[in-house]
Amino acid sequence: MKPYRKALLVLVILVYQTALFAQSLPPHLDSLMKAGVILNDQGKFAEAIAKYEEVLKAEPNNMTALYEKGFSLSAAGKNDEAIPCFETVIASHQLPNAYVALANIYDNRSDFAQAEKYYQQGIAVFPNYGGLWYNLGLSYVKQKKYAQAESAAVESIKINPKHAGSYQVYGYSTYFQGKTAMALMCLSNFLLFNPPQQQARVSAIIVKQILSGAPNPQTDPVAKAQQETIAKAVASSLAGKTNLKPVDSVNLELTSAFKAIKDQSGQYNSTFFARYFGDFFGAIGESNNMDVFTHVITVSLNPQENLAWLKAHPDDIKAFNTWLTTQKRMMN
Question: Which domain holds residue 229?
Fold first, then answer.
């Protein structure tokens, strides 16, 4: 078994998308706003800004128009001009997106103290807006503050369990703490979202590294216990078995690891993890769906073989999807 080691990762941001709390406008101003959004999406930032400024001439206190103007300025690289726009918007306490946009400017400048200040201010006003927690988690990962990133990602997942990027942040932050059981389940969950190829491949490689890694004796007790649980489960799953295909080997390893982690998850100091991940993946490991599951999460490592297998097993895929829809995942 190879020594446990940490991979060098580039965290690819998955945008946390949500609708603005838009202010209602008369038809002609609404048309200007929509035109501005289209122009912005086309990269025509100056023209987009001109549309928003027309709206602001008619309604100077329209925070949605001011936010969109700031967003286009920032996208055009004019962050010094965008900052006053966002500062005015956040003073109105109307749009949580403005806190994210303002904090992101400072985050991208590596002014992490300012960035965290605005993320936290936004959270104080909009505690149930997952985008703030998610972006705060991303910032912590960039700073290598992995415990804080883990906590922020948990809050984001609780608010929006369908946001793939939050699982990515949670998976990476736990992985870099050596909490491999948590990372294994969370990155497996991330891969169920069918992320873009590059992100899927990085996460699938980490999953394989976790399964093949040896415990690090210098890590903290909680992380060491997780690493030991996986190492014992993997060794047991492969005992006496030879000439396995790579996907079949991963299938056996994951099945055994999921069951073992579920049994031990109460010792990992996270009720959220034990209930939301431990119970769920423990149930997958005990189901008849591991063949489909393993081929799905390792598609990026061997696309041709895995996709051919999935195409040849439509009934198994249907059964897995049906199983997924019947599972109730508890967070507390």
Answer: 220-332
Given this model, what pLDDT does residue 26 score? Answer: 87
Q: Is residue 272 part of a domain?
A: yes
Residue finishing a domain among 76, 94, 112:
94
Contacts of 195 (CB under 8 A, 6+ apart): 14, 164, 168, 203
Does 316 have pLDDT greater than 50? Answer: yes
**Domain at 54, CATH number:** 1.25.40.10
Q: Please list, in sequence order, all residues whose beta carbon lies within 8 angstroms of the beta carbon of residue 85, skipping any fewer than 6 positions away.
A: 66, 67, 69, 70, 73
Q: What is the number of structural domains in the chain?
A: 2
Residue (of 181, 129, 180, 193) closest to 155 by Cα position: 129
HEC assignment per residue over 187-254: HHHHHCCCCCHHHHHHHHHHHHHHHHEECCCCCCHHHHHHHHHHHHHHHHHHCCCCCCCHHHHHHHHH
Return the residue matching tokens 């918007």.
89
Q: Which pLDDT tens digit goes with each residue over 185-208?
A: 999 999 999 999 999 999 999 999
Region of 219 on the Ramachandran plot (φ > 0 left; ψ -120 to 50 alpha; else beta):
beta
* Consecutive H or E run containing 131: helix 130-142
Residue 20 has pLDDT above 70, yes or no: no
